[in-house]
Design goal:
- This protein is of the alpha/beta class.
- It has helices at 14-24, 40-51, 62-74, 101-113, 122-130, 170-175, 178-184, 203-210, 223-232, 247-254, 267-271, 283-294, 298-311, 314-331, and strands spanning 4-9, 28-33, 54-58, 78-82, 116-119, 139-141, 161-165, 192-196, 215-219, 235-238, 258-261, 276-277.
- The chain folds into two domains: 4-145 and 313-331, Glycogen Phosphorylase B (Rossmann fold, 3-Layer(aba) Sandwich); 161-311, Glycogen Phosphorylase B (Rossmann fold, 3-Layer(aba) Sandwich).
- It is built from 14 helices and twelve strands.
- It starts with a strand and ends with a helix.
């Protein structure tokens, strides 16, 4: 009989979709995108946990806290995936639950309630220990399994496109380096700079006001259109101050885009030696790194793709999750 999993998340990000599909291959998944409608919310959590063999939650926040409280009450084993806003403490850009207050209490309470804690990078494991005060032996690193979305990668010369992908909101102008991306474009007028991502607030007006003529702000686009940009782009920039993983970087690398990144967060874990690192978070440094990236031969681009295929296979994550869930149910 397949295990029954109550799968709790607060959105539909790519990373969540990947895990949901992995779990559905060997389990019956009751998928719940957390709602804050009272009293529906509590009834939905209770019924979901009551019927489940395992509770599987993404991120330590309100969305997971109630599921984990009920799992504790019903003695149902639980898994919580952490890494990102829930572990961060960046007061200068007002980012992260670990800064202070209610968010800090909620996230730490959720982490303490979970039977098992997973994260997607060794950087996030260190954050859990040093920022959230979670014992390091409680946190297991299981890298993302990243499916290869490209049946083939074009071997002809790529277009003169520099790409970045990210939700456009005020925090991400600094955290994801979106403002730096736009200002760097002025230094490379012969390149087309494309920023793909949903416009979540009026920060897009600020980006428009500082953008040069070679900047394209697409807004939200289809998956097919995004894959086409990955395939056409020569360089992918991730000038982040904080990254729990960097999934878009990995997807771009699968398309043989040369990653130009900072050494912040988990980016060195993803990129390894298969990219160009910026010496500083300045437009001049990023522009120089792009120039270097454009000179890489095609054989190195193939190595960039191979790194992701080798280091982050979906089958490895599936194997580990399957084994851990089986062990939790058996020992319950």
């Amino acid at each position: 009989m397949k295990p029954r999993i109550f799968f709790v998340d607060s959105g539909n990000g790519t990373f969540v979709k990947i895990d949901r599909e992995i779990l559905r291959e060997f389990a019956d998944v009751d998928d719940f995108v957390a709602s804050y409608k009272f009293p529906y919310m509590f009834g939905r959590y209770w019924q979901g946990v009551k019927k489940a063999d395992i509770v599987f939650c993404w991120f330590a926040s309100w969305n997971s806290l109630w599921a984990l409280v009920f799992a504790k009450l019903l003695r149902t084993p639980s898994i919580l995936v952490i890494g990102g806003y829930d572990l961060a403490n960046l007061p200068d850009i007002k980012y992260g639950h670990q800064r202070c207050g209610l968010g800090k209490w909620v996230s730490r309470s959720a982490m303490k309630l979970a039977t098992r804690l997973f994260t997607n990078s060794y950087f996030s494991k260190k954050e859990a220990e040093h920022k959230a005060r979670i014992l390091r032996q409680r946190v297991q690193v299981i890298y993302y399994g990243i499916p290869g979305p490209f049946e083939s990668v074009r071997r002809s010369p790529k277009d003169q496109i520099v790409l970045t992908v990210g939700r456009v909101d005020w925090p991400n102008l600094k955290r994801k380096g979106l403002e730096l991306f736009v200002t760097t474009a002025k230094l490379l007028p012969d390149m087309k700079f494309v920023l793909v991502g949903e416009w979540a607030d009026n920060s897009i007006d600020h980006l428009r006001s500082i953008a040069s003529a070679n900047v394209i702000l697409t807004g939200r686009i289809s998956d097919k259109e995004l894959l086409d940009y990955y395939l056409r782009a020569s360089v992918y920039i991730q000038a982040s101050l904080h990254e729990g993983f960097g999934l878009s970087v990995a997807e771009a690398m699968l398309a043989e885009c040369v990653p130009v990144v900072t050494r912040n967060g988990s980016l060195p874990e993803v990129v390894g030696e298969c990219g160009v690192y910026c010496e500083s978070n300045s437009p001049e440094s990023i522009a120089q790194s792009v120039r270097i990236a454009l000179q890489l031969p095609s054989v190195e681009r193939m190595q960039i793709r191979q790194r992701i295929l080798t280091k982050f296979p979906v089958e490895e994550r599936k194997k580990l999750l399957t084994q851990i869930i089986e062990d939790l149910i058996k020992n319950d």
